[in-house]
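help with this record:
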Amino acid sequence: MANMKDIAKMARVSLGTVSHVLNNSAGVREPIRKRVLEAVHAVGYQPSQLARGLRRDKTNMIGMIIPDILNPFFPAVVRGAEDVAFSNGYRLILCNTDNDHSKELVHLNELRTYLPAGLIVIPSNFSDLTAQAESYRKAGTSLVCVDRLPRDWSGDSVTADNEDGAYNATRSLLRLGHKKLATITGPLHLTNAAERLQGFRRALREAKLNLDPEYVQETTFDKQGGYSKTVTLLRLIPRPTAIFAGNDMIALGTLLAIRDAGLRCPEDVSIMGFDDLDIAETTDPALSSVSQSGYQLGTTAASLLLERIQGNSGPAKHIVLVTSLHLRNSTAAPPAVRLRRS
């Protein structure tokens, strides 16, 4: 593998001159600079980013930690962050925690040895990043949390307006005439799941509808959790006529459970999701869902991180992105209302 000594020998210059050309650290006359760059190209030299980082205390790498690479919502967040990072000369390193805080801590500790310019973190279950973030900050490395916030977080963050999105989704179901609603939430120690439940409850309070505890089911943010909790809800008397799912993966499990129970959506039970994944348009029926842009979450987080990397040391920012409601065929008036209208 070629090194800087090989370049210096081929270009007939000193090792220091090669270093100045590669790092733009001092003025070098154009003919010599050109000769060095020609030698770099000829030998196929690739500079070591880690070696550069050791000289500068930082590399051009940005670490990104996500909880579940299999969840189709998160790749869009990663893509948004990577697009911004790449266009500004940074490279993204991706780590997956499987929603395990102990694994998250391993990634955080090991990433520090790579001298990243900054970190973007979608926290895991029961995440507490206070000590880690402080350690990174003391080293001059910024950290931005995305989508959900860890316990007692006071640093930079970018989230969707989860409560407002859930509130509008629930009001949409109420306007259709639903009186017996249920919800399947994500893990309620996660801020996004708790905020969506708050929005659901707020809409019911305004409508002066009681919410019995058994009509709120908590599960993991996945299809299996949605399926099992829907089975529980369908056994209740009276059976809910509409289910608000904490995300679209839960909603997919809900749809499958309704089919397996010999019921129809939306004729017997309406379903509302949250995220508006691409698959929402392709389910049968197409899924009504609260739309939040994962890509925009990623671009906004990376842009905020770059501000910090470039020296903006102002107070912590908490950026909240608006959501919208995309109504499709999985929501309709409940059976009793349809009979009255006919």
